[in-house]
Structure prediction request, 301 residues.
Amino acid sequence: MTPEELDRIGPTNAFEWALFVSNHHDTYPCITPTGTELAGKSIFITGASKGIGRAIAMRCVKAGISKIAIGARSSLDEVVKELKAEATKSNLPEPQILTLEVDVTSKESVEAAAEAVNASFAGKLDILVNNAGYLPDMTRIVESDPDDWLRGWDVNIKGPYLCCHFFLPMILKSETKTIINMTSIGAHLLTHGGSAYQNARFAICRITETLAREHKKEGLIVLALHPGAIRTDMAEKLQDIFPDIFVDVPELPADTIVWLGKERREWLNARMISANWDMEELEMKKDEIIERDLFKFRITL
Prediction:
């Protein structure tokens, strides 16, 4: 990066974190679903009508998911068709699919979604993916639109809070007991104009730690996942700031979530991790990660 680009993102060690192990920009054999990874499991994905959420749903079907609930504010009809076609293409049983029109910023909407999942999935949910997100305009606080700035916090913080609040009882009744909160490398950057989005992504990492601590005795696993740099609708707002970084494919975080959900990953609990990381290399550093208690936000003294 040029000095001007480094100045724009602010002084952090985010890139040392990003390069902790080798990086990928596309899916790779270790995490690519084979049809058995999620057999017998259930999942609920927010923001599933497009982009990363849609890709997560598709790859979960490819991994043999048994029950899948997808939520979004917009229509999910085309997604359902694609999920059924993927099951047929992969020669896998068609999963039980539950579609939910849900606004993650609304208490009543999320509560109704949780009630529907509870009724359809016999009271248990293995994996919750808080994927819905919103990127406010990248502008200084003094020049920002307060409604737009606060909508970022509503979607990126209030949304995961409400989903965790209402879905957690079902998660704790399952065997996998895993929650994945989408974050961003931006959580550890100070990009000019990024106060709403980046601070919310920082906050979700802290909420991730809080949930893991509150429910440690119950075996809850909560992870904060940076999905990579993917050209989604949200990313279009960043074209002028970061024009060359969106080189990752949505199947990369989707397959990473399959890998994270196929078995309990206690050694990653409460940590901020990256979908770009090579997971085989990461597993080789398991002891170091636990011993040094890595990938959590702490003040360095």
